[in-house]
Amino acid sequence: MQSYDVVIAGGGTAGCSAAYNLGKSGKKVLIIEKNIHLGGTMTSAFVSPMMNTSKNQINTDFLEAFIKRMKHYKGQITYIDGNIGWFNPELAKIALDDLMQETNVDILFNSKISNLDISNKYIEAIYTDNINNKEDEILSTPIVTRYVIDTTGNCDVGKIARCNFLENNLQQQPTSLRFIMSGINLEKFSSWLMDFDKDRNVTTCYKSGNEIHLSTAYTWDASKQWALKPLFDEGVRDGIIKDEDRNYFQVFTIPGMTDAIGFNCPRIYFRDEINPLDAESASKALILGRQAIFRLSKFCIKYLKGFEKAYISNIADMLGVRVSRRIKGKYVYTVDDLKNGKKFKNPVLISNYPIDVHSNKNNKSILDTNIGEYQLPVESLMSCDIDNLFVAGRCLSADFYSQAALRIIPSCFSMGEGLAKYIIKKDVELISNKKLF
Ligand SMILES: Cc1cc2nc3c(=O)[nH]c(=O)nc-3n(C[C@H](O)[C@H](O)[C@H](O)COP(=O)(O)OP(=O)(O)OC[C@H]3O[C@@H](n4cnc5c(N)ncnc54)[C@H](O)[C@@H]3O)c2cc1C
């Protein structure tokens, strides 16, 4: 029987940060990851860059180690906006492997937790879906652990443990399926775009070393003077794209990919919303997403200069989910806590990132920037049902609107790290008192 101090389900944004910090402190750690690489939404769903957050951010050891390793692979650039968070998602897979190896974290890829032994509100052992090689056994060998951290995004371990969750009240944010086009003449695209978007209110473009850094956007929301609007109108009129394809269009260059553009779209449009926890709905989303990607690529090739020889080079292998199942924790964080900047005894993060709610409907997206610094308590990462089950990342115990501010990558890093440090400290106390919970 294998034994670990901590088992982490989900080697994504928050999971890697927790694992790195626990491993660095000498804990025996196992990551169980359903995909074949680390990084989760950052790599599988191509979500880059990290959003900028407060200069007073805490629990940043993992962020710093990650950026350092990404620089080594030439997969990170700090542009004049000062954001260190522009990174290359493909190289991030390699950097994250390195960081886990250096901290002696074991990893099981292609695996999920399939079952749990729970006794007296305590997870005693876990089983994975890797069935034993022996013909007469259909269960995997149990893995014994003292702490389980659920960083699966959808809180899958909490579901298996029959934990309570927060009511969703049918509030959703749209899912997106991101993609990358390559073969683009970036010099040509950037000079055309700078000329086309005379106001430059949504377009950035400049040279950084040998690379062009460029970003632009368009949405059917009426709030800004979107330079690309006439082209989208024409694309819909010509039948190249559907009306819904312009509900959100955002593109930017990626460090180290010198002829490529990453797309933070399409938002997937299907009746009211996609439910990412429903396999049928999520499957439909992926198919619709890929169809929209094809239409958008035709649009770019036809209307954007520099895209004449461009092609779809990568489609994300993970649906981009902003919010889904959230655990009911020992503390349920609220939007009032966030807006009032409530202080806590054991904060895991400090941020000032706004409340960012995307919507598929015209003019319904919210970006509430009228907030100061706020903290998140570690108790929002503790299950209220199972004593040794913790969460980190977007499935934390927070209401819908506060989660919309807390889910960004730097905050997920801080959550994973703050939780790891809390467990390390707690473990010393528990071991010296010779009791576990
Ligand atoms: C479209 C989109 C755009 C965004 N844009 C930005 C942005 O520009 N900047 C920013 O900072 N943030 C952005 N975000 C938010 C941010 O990227 C995510 O909220 C954050 O990365 C989520 O981290 P996580 O650790 O909770 O989940 P993830 O990083 O998704 O990690 C979950 C991991 O668990 C694995 N997993 C899932 N289920 C299981 C299971 N049952 N067993 C084992 N493993 C499992 C997954 O494969 C994955 O590796 C965006 C999000 C989306 C969806």
Can you give a write-up of this model?
The protein has 437 residues and is of the alpha+beta class. The protein has two domains: 278 residues, FAD/NAD(P)-binding domain (3-Layer(bba) Sandwich); 137 residues. It has ten helices and 19 strands. Strands 1, 2, 5, 6, 7, 8 and 19 form a seven-stranded mixed β-sheet that branches. The chain has a six-stranded antiparallel β-sheet with strand order 10-11-12-13-9-14, covered by helices on one side. The structure holds flavin-adenine dinucleotide (FAD). Flavin-adenine dinucleotide binds next to α1 and α10.
Descriptive tags:
single chain; 437 residues; FAD/NAD(P)-binding domain; seven-stranded mixed beta sheet; six-stranded antiparallel beta sheet; binds flavin-adenine dinucleotide
Quick recap:
By secondary structure, the chain is of the alpha+beta class. The chain has helices spanning 13-24, 61-72, 89-102, 156-160, 186-196, 229-237, 279-303, 335-340, 400-406, 409-432; strands spanning 2-9, 29-32, 76-77, 86-87, 106-108, 113-119, 122-128, 143-150, 179-182, 204-208, 211-218, 249-254, 257-263, 311-315, 347-351, 355-357, 366-368, 374-377, 389-391.
How many H/I helical runs? 10
Which range does the strand content fall in? 15-25%
Report the principal-axis shape.
globular
Architecture (CATH level 2) name of the largest domain: 3-Layer(bba) Sandwich
Q: Low-confidence spans: pLDDT under 50, at least 5 residues?
A: none
Order of helices and strands: EHEHEEHEEEEHEHEEHEEHEHEEEEEHH
Profile the largest sheet: 7 strands, mixed
CATH topology of the largest domain: FAD/NAD(P)-binding domain
Bound molecules: flavin-adenine dinucleotide
Cα(first) to Cα(last) distance is: 22 Å
- The class by helix and strand makeup works out as alpha+beta
| Number of separate domains | 2
Number of strands: 19
The named CATH superfamily of the largest domain? FAD/NAD(P)-binding domain
Instruction: Please compute the radius of gyration using only Cα atoms.
Output: 22 Å
How helix-rich are the residues, as a percent range? 25-40%
- Summarize model confidence as the mean pLDDT: 93
Q: Briefly, what CATH class of the largest domain?
A: Alpha Beta
